[in-house]
Write a structure and sequence with these properties.
The chain has 278 residues and is of the alpha/beta class. The chain folds into 2 domains: 3-147, Rossmann fold (3-Layer(aba) Sandwich); 156-276, HUPs (Rossmann fold). The chain is built from 10 helices and 10 strands. It has helices at residues 15-27, 47-51, 57-86, 99-107, 131-139, 165-178, 203-213, 226-237, 252-257, 261-268, and strands spanning 3-8, 31-37, 90-95, 112-116, 144-147, 156-160, 185-192, 218-223, 241-246, 273-276. It has a 10-stranded mixed β-sheet, sandwiched between helices. The longest helix is centred in the first third of the chain and has 30 residues, at 57-86. It is elongated, with a radius of gyration of 20 Å.
């Protein structure tokens, strides 16, 4: 049985993370771990709100912390109830230390991490990809399913393939995770800059590999600039898809000047992304 991990901020519970986690656990017949990152530095209130309070500082601080504890407990209960009703195998971890460090540690022992693209584990909201997500994806030690803000049951998998080892590695990990319980439809999507190019890179080897793992896969070759072509194709043809891609293979400095494809897709496409890097 595979082990899936779903990451939650108990003070800002992600319902879409829960829905995708339940779907993946059922689809792949996996055990689901709900990791609630109760980071001791994470509060619903600011320091200014506490210091500006006119009454008893200690009493007000205790009241605010108690409200946070109640919100976190309610999130855990929501997860517990949903998993029980779905009839899946599950467990719950409540990690108290720094959220990023705890989640990276959890990823060592997981087959897949599921998390919302909007997670910040702070009081503040950010545009995707958030700083937390960039740091997580750079160092995570298992594949990650980055989910959008709205749930749509996945019907197919679109595998982005550019001939690079990282893209093949992502396909391998998705295959190992899904086992016999694969998506109903599989598409290998490749973009070639030449207008008349109609073949995927290393076509003979890639199709030989895919025939062993996804024998019914279809192949699509687009022409043009990869980012724009992929975004247009996903928006026009693939609602309800999981996009499989290799990413974050380059160093942080390199990504400052040339963003990862995963970063761009998180910004522009409301599609879950299965991201793996070697």
């Amino acid at each position: 049985m595979k082990k899936l991990t779903a990451a939650f901020d108990g003070l800002r519970f992600s319902e879409t993370t829960l829905q995708y986690a339940l779907f993946m656990a059922k689809k792949f017949e996996a055990h689901l771990v709900g990791v609630f990152l109760d980071d001791f530095t994470r509060h619903s209130y600011s320091v200014a709100e506490i210091t500006q309070y006119k009454g008893s500082f200690d009493a007000h601080l205790q009241t605010m912390n108690a409200k946070d504890d109640q919100a976190r407990d309610a999130s855990v209960q929501r997860f517990n109830k949903a998993c029980s009703e779905a009839g899946i195998s599950f467990s719950i971890h409540r990690d108290k230390n720094i959220a990023l460090q705890e989640l990276l540690h959890e990823s060592i022992y997981s087959d897949l991490l599921i998390i919302s693209r909007m997670e910040t584990f702070t009081r503040f909201e950010e545009q995707a990809p958030t700083r937390f997500m960039k740091d997580l994806l750079a160092d995570v030690l298992c594949p990650v399913l980055v989910v959008p803000t709205e749930y749509q049951e996945p019907q197919k998998a679109v595998m982005l393939y550019d001939g690079e080892p990282s893209s093949v590695h992502a396909v391998k990990l998705f295959s190992y995770l899904s086992g016999a319980n694969k998506m109903a439809s599989i598409e290998v999507l490749s973009v070639q800059p030449e207008e008349d190019a109609q073949h995927i890179p290393d076509q003979r080897l890639m199709k030989e590999f895919m025939n062993r793992h996804f024998p019914d896969a279809g192949y699509t070759v687009l022409n043009g600039q990869p980012v724009q072509a992929i975004i247009h194709h996903l928006a026009a043809h693939d609602p309800g898809a999981i996009v499989v891609l290799g990413a974050y293979r380059r160093g942080r400095l390199s990504r400052m000047f040339r963003p990862s494809m995963a970063d761009v897709l998180m910004k522009q496409v409301q599609t879950p992304l299965f991201i793996a890097h070697d």
